[in-house]
Amino acid sequence: MAESAEWNAGEADIQSIAHELNSAVPQEGARDIRSTELDRRIYWTTALALMSHPDGFVGAKPAFGNLIRVLRRIHTTNSRSSPYDDLVSLTAIVEGLSESEILPRAVFTTSSSFASITRLHLQRGRWGSRLLEWTVDLASLVTLQRDFAERIGAANQDIIRIGAQTVFRSQSHAPTSSALKSVQMSIDRLDGRGSDEFLKLSFGSTRATVRVGKHASSDPNLEALLLRGQTPELHRPAREALVEALGAGPAGHSDQNYVDRVRTYMGNIQSLFSVKPREFAPNWFASQAAQDPKSAFLFLVEFADKARVLMGILSAAVPDAVNLQKLTRVRSALASWDRALAGEGECCWWPQGPGGEPPSRKPKNQSSR
After folding, report:
1. What average pLDDT does this structure show over 45-49?
2. Angle at alpha carbon of residue 93, lines to 343 and 2, rounded to 5°
3. How far apart are CA 329 and CA 242, in angstroms?
4. pLDDT for 195-224, tens place per residue?
5. Residue 369 pLDDT > 50, yes or no?
6. Contact 212, 127 (CB under 8 A)
7. Where does the pLDDT of residue 232 fall: very low under 50, low under 70, confident under 90, or very high at 90 and above?
8. Angstrom distance (rounded) from CA 16 to CA 10
9. Cα dihedral 17/114/111/186 (nearest 10)
10. What is the mean pLDDT of residues 135-149?
11. CA pseudo-torsion sign 47, 300, 310, 275
C-alpha cells in the first residue's frame, strides 16, 4: 500500500495497529528478543502513517501518540535488524514533526553507523538544544548539480569543513574550498554521459566535519541543501505517481499521446538538471518510457533525488497530468517531510535567482530553530 502510493488514512486503522505493536514489543529488561518481523511491521506502519497522515505526529496530544511510544521504546534497545536500520532514518521524520526526542544520542555521533544519514542531524539541530558536530564521508553530502561547490563552499559558511584543519575555530576555508572544487570537477565532467558513468562516480575517502544546531549556522537554506539528503522511502511511490499522472499503459504498449506527453514533460524539466545523463534527452527517455515505464521513471526519480529536485519533477507533471490522485498524495507527503526535516529551509535545488535565492519561496508553518 505504501510503495504503491495508494495509501489512504481510512483504509488502515493505524491507531489500532500501533496499540497491537505496543503490546508486542518486549518489556524493558525482558529476556524476549524482538523479532525481525516485528521490526518490519513497525517500519511499514510508521511509513504508512507518515505518508498518509503526517499531521498525526504533531501537537501536544498527537493522534499517533501510541506509535510514538512504540518508536521510543524500541530505540532504547540494542537490538538491530535490517528493518530497524531503515526505521532509524524514518524516525527522524517523526522526530521532526513531533519535535521530541525519540532517537538516542548515540546515533548522532561520528562513530555511529548512521552518521551518513544526515537528515537525522538536520532535524534534531533545527529544534534541539544542543550543537551537533560529527565527521562523515563527503560522498554522503554531495548533490549532483553544477553549482554545488559554489553554494556550499561560500567563504562565510559555517557548516562544513574539509581537510586537515577541520576544527571550526580555524578561519581558513582553503582546504574546504579546494576539496569542493575537486568534487565539482568530477560532477561536471559527467554531464551528457551515460548513466553507467554516473554509477562509477566516487570521491575517495574524503571526510568532512559538519555541524548544526545551537550556536551553529543561522542559514537554514544552506543547512537544508547540504544535509536534507535523499528520500528513498518515496522513490517507488513517486514512480507510481508519475506513471499514473502521465497516463502510461502496459509496458511495451505504444500510445502516441502518452509518448508525446512524456517527451513534453522531459523537455520541461531539463532546466532542473545542470548535470544529467544522456538518457534524459526527451526523445530518448520517451522511447524508454514507452517500452518500460516503471523502470524509466524509477531511474528518473532516483537521479532527481540525488540532484535534490524530486519535488521539482513531481510538480512539473501537474499541468499535463491525466490523473492527479497519486501525484497529489506524494507531493503532499514530500512537502510535509521536507518541513519536518528542514523547517523553513529550502530543500529543493531550484536554479538560483538574482539574489541567490530560489525563484519563489512559499511560507511554511513549521517552526524553526
Report:
1. 95
2. 125
3. 12
4. 999 989 988 888 899 999 876 666 888 899
5. no
6. no
7. very high
8. 12
9. 180
10. 93
11. positive
Q: How many whole angstroms separate alpha carbon 209 and alpha carbon 259? A: 46
- Report the distance separating Cα 264 and Cα 260, nearest Å: 6
Query: Side chain identity at 33, as an amino acid letter?
Result: I
Please give the single-letter amino acid code of residue 87: L
- 87/117 Cα distance (integer angstroms): 12
Whether the CB-CB separation of 65 and 112 falls below 8 Å is answered with no
Q: What does the alpha-carbon distance between residue 329 and residue 7 come to, in Å, rounded to a whole number?
A: 8
Instruction: Show the cell assigned to 58.
Output: 504533531
Distance between CA atoms of residues 282 and 47, nearest Å = 33
132 grid coordinates: 551537533
113 burial class (0-12, 13-18, 19+ CB within 10 angstroms)?
exposed
* Residue 118, pLDDT score: 96
**Where along the chain do its domains lie?**
1-103, 105-229, 232-342
C-alpha angle 227-151-213 in degrees, rounded to nearest 5: 35
Give me the residue label for grid cell 512559499.
362
Q: Residue 103, Cβ neighbours under 10 Å: how many?
A: 21
Q: Is the dihedral of CA 66, 67, 70, 75 positive or negative?
A: negative
Kindly report the pTM of this predicted structure.
0.90
Query: How would you classify the pairing of strands 131-137 and 160-162?
Result: unpaired
**Among 323, 294, 297, CA closest to 310:** 297
Strand partners, 213: 131
pLDDT in tens, 240-293: 999 999 998 776 676 899 999 999 999 999 999 999 999 999 999 999 999 999
Q: What percent of the chain has pLDDT over 70?
A: 86
Confidence (pLDDT) at 249: 77
DSSP codes joined into one string, 53-75: -GGGG-SSS-TTHHHHHHHHHHT
Picking from 345, 95, 331, the residue whose alpha carbon sits closest to that of residue 234 is 331
Cell matching residue 204: 575517495
- pLDDT tens digits for range 302-334: 999 999 999 999 999 999 999 999 999 999 999
**The residue count for the chain:** 369
Residue with cell 553507467: 196
